[in-house]
Design a protein that fits this description.
The chain folds into two domains: 127 residues, Immunoglobulins (Immunoglobulin-like), CATH 2.60.40; 92 residues, Immunoglobulins (Immunoglobulin-like). It has 254 residues and is mainly β. The longest helix is centred in the N-terminal third of the chain and has 6 residues. The radius of gyration is 18 Å and the shape is globular. The N terminus is likely disordered. 5% of the residues lie in helices and 42% in strands. A hairpin with a 2-residue loop joins β14 and β15. It has two helices and 15 strands.
Length: 254
């Protein structure tokens, strides 16, 4: 396994969102999952369009997504070209930072880190990259951290989404039992991204965790709770007008 040198702890912790959603069970033989091509502009000007490209090879039908160290992408960004390109329109200095292309087929994952920095005058961005492939836990139901827009009726005017609640079931959970953390959101227009982060090193994500999606909600399902599941989780949601993220701390059973 290649070391994730050059990535700060906050960046590594956000990669946990991939492993929460990367649970496609497969036994087929395939070439190793790897990122074989990346591209970014040699020069960034304020107000321009920035295209970051990430091409994946191998694995078993890998899913590609993009994240940032905050877990959320800029509102003025779009994932295009089948997930291979992150497009940031009307680039501003507030978009400076790291953007991570993440690919997974449920057994392996690979990531490529872009670091962009633009000033108010034309400048070359500082760009550092890192690619790593490692084995991740597999579970029995396929999910991803990015879902298509959910069709539903809403009575409020269009606005950025809101995390309404995060509830654990059962409330009197105990070690060895099943635990569910449900995040309910409100979004009009419909959300384009919804998921959970487990704020820990991805190598420490236990294999008894997976995500389930419902209408305007996403659930962390924990099978047979252990000490490894105790910690901080983050629910995040995004639509075309904005984004929201709220944290939830799963305490040890009383």
């Amino acid at each position: 396994m290649t070391n994730c040198k050059g990535m700060n702890p906050k960046t590594i912790s956000i990669l946990a969102v991939l492993l929460l959603g990367a649970n496609i069970l497969t036994t087929a033989t395939a070439d190793p999952l790897q990122i074989i091509f990346t591209d970014q502009p040699n020069q960034i000007t304020i107000g321009s369009e920035v295209h970051l490209t990430c091409v994946v090879s191998g694995g078993n039908d890998p899913h590609v997504t993009w994240i940032s160290p905050t877990g959320l992408l800029p509102v003025n960004s779009h994932i295009t070209n089948g997930g291979r390109t992150l497009l940031i329109t009307n680039y501003d200095v507030t978009e400076n930072g790291q953007y991570i292309c993440v690919a997974s087929d449920g057994q392996e994952f690979a990531n490529h880190v872009f670091t962009l920095s633009a000033q108010h005058t034309e400048t070359h961005p500082t760009a550092t990259t890192s690619t790593t492939t490692t084995t991740s836990p597999t579970t029995t139901a396929p999910t991803t951290t990015t879902t298509s827009a959910t069709t539903h009726s809403a009575t409020h005017a269009p606005r950025p989404p809101t995390v309404l609640s995060m509830v654990v079931h059962p409330t009197n959970y105990h070690y060895g039992g099943d635990v569910h953390i449900v995040c309910t959101v409100e979004s009009n227009p419909p959300h384009t991204m919804l998921g959970w982060n487990m704020m820990t090193d991805p190598n420490h994500i236990p294999s008894n965790i997976h995500l389930n999606y419902g209408t305007n909600k996403v659930t962390v399902n924990i099978k047979h709770l252990t000490d490894a599941n105790i910690g901080k989780y983050q629910c995040f949601v995004r639509n075309s007008l904005g984004q929201d993220a709220q944290s939830f701390l799963l305490h040890p059973p009383k």
